[in-house]
Amino acid sequence: MGNTNEFQLSISETTFGGLSVLSGTNGKAVCNEDYGCIDYGQLIWVTLQRSKNAQEAITTMANLTNTYGYASEGESFSIADPNEVWILEMIGKGSIELGTVWVATRVPDGSICAHANQARTRTFARNTPDDVQYAPDVVSFAQANGLWQGDDEATFDFSDV
Asked: Is the dihedral of CA 104, 110, 127, 53 positive or negative?
């Protein structure tokens, strides 16, 4: 498998459709402070160079995309190491601002999860960091930009938004 490093950390992906306003490049082949520079392939390769396990990969991916932007409207990443597997779903912030909104969910031991070219993260727990991690502004970004009008974070549905 081409996307595996020497620590047996593996990352695969599948693209899901999203809002074109959040695509990172808005259809323009530019790279500056207004548009996302990193696409999903580059993100995988750089993360594999810098991470030893799945949780470190999640942190690295969030840091890279928040620093350099993200040129994709929606991506599901399966991130696995010898001890655990996570599904990270990430959406760029387009030309609104640099960064991403994302939710990562640990696949329970003994379970499987398949990529389906569709965001799978619906509502998610906020108080279980061993099983769910997320961008601190995943809900507030959607609210501030008119993408979600709810006021109860427990009803926020990542896939629907």
From this structure: negative
